[in-house]
Each structure stands twice: as C-alpha cells, then as structure tokens.
Amino acid sequence: MSQDHLDARRRQILDGARACFARHGYEGATVRRLEEATGLSRGAIFHHFRDKESLFLALAEDEALRMADVVAEQGLVQVMRDLLDEPEKRTGEHAADWLGTRLEVSRRLRTDPDFRARWAERSEQLTTATRQRLIRQREAGNLRDDVDVTVLTSFLELVLEGLVSHLAMGLPAENMEPVLDLVEETVRRHRRSS
Amino acid sequence: MSQDHLDARRRQILDGARACFARHGYEGATVRRLEEATGLSRGAIFHHFRDKESLFLALAEDEALRMADVVAEQGLVQVMRDLLDEPEKRTGEHAADWLGTRLEVSRRLRTDPDFRARWAERSEQLTTATRQRLIRQREAGNLRDDVDVTVLTSFLELVLEGLVSHLAMGLPAENMEPVLDLVEETVRRHRRSS
C-alpha cells in the first residue's frame, strides 16, 4: 500500500472507532463492534493500532491537536464555544457521546499509571498551546497581568473539563454562552472598578 | 425496629455502598459486593432502598445536602476547597474514587430520562443553595453586580464540575488553590482597573 492508502485506512479506522466508542462507551466497544463500525477485520485494525487502548488514545490525541489548532488562533474559550455549537453542526453522531467516553475512562486514568502517562502526553499539547496563546495575548496587552499565566491556563482548562462533563451528562447547554463570556472576561481584560 | 435502629441501619447501608461504588464503580458494584461491603443481606439492603439506582441516588442526595450546608455558610468555592483537602482528611477511602463513580454514570444520565430526572432533583438542592447564597452576598454588597446571579451560579457549578472531573481523573491537585482564588475573586469583588 502507498502512504496515501495507509493514511486513508488509518483515517477509516479512527472515524469508525470514534463512532463506536461514542455509541457503546469504552468498555462496550468490543473488537467485534470495532470491526463492524470500521468495516475492517481485527487483523487490519490492529495492524495499524497496537490495541484498543492505543486506538482510543490516538482519538484523544487527534482531538487535542484539533483543539490546539483552535487555541492557537482563537483561544481555549473558542474551543468551549465550539463544543456548545457541536450538536447543531454534526449530524448522526452526538458529540456528548464521545465526551462521555472520555469520562468513562476516568477510573482507568486514576488507577493505571501507564495509561495515565500516555493520556497526559496527549493532553499536554493542549496545555502548551493554551499557555503559548496566553503569553502572546499578554505581550499584546490583551491579558490581565496580575495573575500568573500558569494559573490562567489551569483556570481555562478547569472550565473546559467542567463543560465536557456538563455536556457528557446531557445537562442543558443553552444558557452557557454568558458563562463563557464571563470566563473570557476573567482572563482577558481588567474590569472597571464600580 | 425503632426509628433509631432504622436510621442506623440506613446509615450502615449507605456507608458500605459508598465504599463499594468508590472501589468498584457503578457497574462493578454488584449485589454480592454490596452485601459484602455493608455486611447485610440483599433482602435487608433492598428493604431500605428499592434498587441499586435508588441507593446510588440516595448517596448523591446525601452529598448534595452536605455540600448545600457548606454553601449556605461559606459558599460553593469552599466546597471546592474541601474537595481539594479531602484526600488528606479521609483515610482508607479515596474521595477521587467516589467522584469517579459520579462520572461513570454520565452515559446513563444522558440516555435514561428517568434516571436524569431523579439525579436532577437531587442536584437542584445544591443549585438553589448556591443561588440563595449569592443573592445574600449581593445584598451584603460582596458580589459583583454587573453579572446576573443565574450566570454566576452556573459559572461556579461549571468550575465545580471541572474540579470533580479533574480529581476523578487523578490529575494533580496541588496547584489548584490559586485557581480557586481566581474563581472566588471573579464572583465576589470588582477589580481595580489597571
């Protein structure tokens, strides 16, 4: 197979696996269901990815990279706004289902140091992109300067984690826009004293 | 049995069940394991609680009420600070394990309207306590007055959800204090313009 074919095959596996994880959860995504969802044999799937864990982590990495791209251009709050819009944009797949799968692995993340290390490696890219964006914003004078960039980065990431959890639990999202406005304002500019 | 005995028995079941859910997760907390953890027969357990779901929701309600008490006196940020301290305070049981169980039911919350309604009923108490506290704080002049109390309530709840998720995933908590300071400041007082 040519590199193009390999890349396309890899994409086919990832897209099918993502839908499968979203629909059945991490534990429920059996090898048989992964075969059905990707339209490929287990041999073909695990030729590209060592095991289910690697497949899941590749999807998490994909997502972190996509988010990091948005962060670089528009900031982490925009990533959150995109998550709110997602249900409208995507058809067929429910974004909340995939977000929920991320929550379902929390026990594994907590108890399996190797899995946690592999996950952390992937999510580190998002943290780095967020920190770099904030540093650039500070240099441009758009960021508050009385709080450390590390604290602001953790703050934004904590809100993102809250939003992921909120959406994954199917809680109402329609009133979240003013909350994200507040989050953005907290990081960006100083308010006038009243 | 007297009411005191019934209350003590109920407490015994809840304490054992909480440890069992924390240790094995929602799905992993089988009836057999619940019997072991509580030291009681399934007959005795399900005399007090209709089913496993009711047991889990009673624990969630317990927790919401405990948090609502702290909120009334000290606010929702204090609830978050308590969560950070929890690992040190409790011995034997890991707070993150129970928090993780809450995440594991996210798929169920999303897909089972009846379960979601029962869960929402319980978490509503925390929202109400938070909103009431903020209204009192506003009346006392301690709260910013340019953002609606509903938005501030949702903001604090979103950060709490993020913190629960963060701790449940076993992510580092040691640098969270300045982040919570920032959250508190965002809600409470106006900053001077720079």
Keywords for this entry:
Tetracycline Repressor, domain 2, homodimer, 79% helix, 0% strand, mainly alpha, 10 helices, 2 domains, Arc Repressor Mutant, subunit A, 194 residues
Mean pLDDT value of chain A:
90
CATH class of the largest domain in chain A: Mainly Alpha
Protein structure class of chain A: mainly alpha
CATH topology title of the largest domain in chain A: Tetracycline Repressor, domain 2
Looking at the overall shape, the CATH architecture of the largest domain in chain A is Orthogonal Bundle
Can you give me a brief rundown of this structure?
The structure is a homodimer of 194-residue chains. The first copy, chain A, is an all-alpha fold and 194 residues long.
Can you tell me about this structure?
Two copies of one chain form a homodimer. Helix content of chain A is 79%, strand content 0%. Chain A is an all-alpha fold and 194 residues long. Chain A has two domains: 1-49, Homeodomain-like (Arc Repressor Mutant, subunit A), CATH 1.10.10; 52-187, Tetracycline Repressor, domain 2, CATH 1.10.357.10. In chain A, helix 1 crosses helix 4, helix 5 (76-89) packs parallel to helix 9 (149-168) and helix 6 (95-104) crosses helix 9 (149-168). Chain A is elongated and about 55 Å long. The model of chain A has no long low-confidence stretch (mean pLDDT 90). At the A-B interface, helix 6, helix 7, helix 9 and helix 10 of A face helix 6, helix 7, helix 9 and helix 10 of B.
